[in-house]
Amino acid sequence: MKILVTGGAGFIGSNLVKRLIQDGHHVVVLDNLLRGNKIDKETFSKIEFVKGDVCDEELVFKVSRGADVIFHFAAVLGVDIVADHPVETMEVETIGTRNVVHAALENKV
To answer: Which residue has the higher pLDDT, 30 or 93?
Structure first.
C-alpha cells in the first residue's frame, strides 16, 4: 500500500513510519522539519520524503495522489512556538487539516 504520513518526522509519526516500512508499505512522509527529524537513518533511506507544509494546498494534493491511506499527524508542537506564533498555529491546525481532508476526498483516499 502507498501511505502518506503528514508530520511523519515527529515522535508519533516516525514510530508509525518505522512500523509501516517493516510491514512492507510504500511510505511518503510530508513534514516541514520545524522540530527536527526523528526518523532514523535506516528508515529514512526506505521512504519517500517531501519537505513541506500541510498549509500548502497544492503540495498536499500532489503528495496524496495515489495514496491508499493518509495518517495526519502534522501539528505545531511546543508551548514556546504556540505562544509566540498563535496565528500560524491556528493555520496549521485548521487550514492544514482542511487541506489534508480535502485532498483525501478529491483523490479518493
So the answer is: 30
Name the burial class of residue 27, with classes exposed (0-12), middle (13-18) and buried (19+) by CB atoms within 10 angstroms of its CB: buried
Domains of the chain, start order: 2-106 (3.40.50.720)
Give the separation between CA 31 and CA 51, rounded to whole angstroms: 5
Q: Distances from the Cα of 36 to the Cαs of 7, 19, 70, in angstroms?
A: 11, 20, 21
Q: Model confidence at 80, in pLDDT bands (50, 70, 90)?
A: confident
pLDDT tens digit sequence for 15-63: 999 999 999 999 999 999 887 788 888 888 899 999 999 999 999 999 9
Instruction: Report the pLDDT averaged over residues 82-105.
Output: 91
Contact by Cβ (8 Å): 74, 7: yes
CA-CA distances (angstroms) from residue 35 to 1, 8, 31?
28, 11, 10
| Cα→Cα distances 21→3, 16, 79, Å | 10, 9, 31
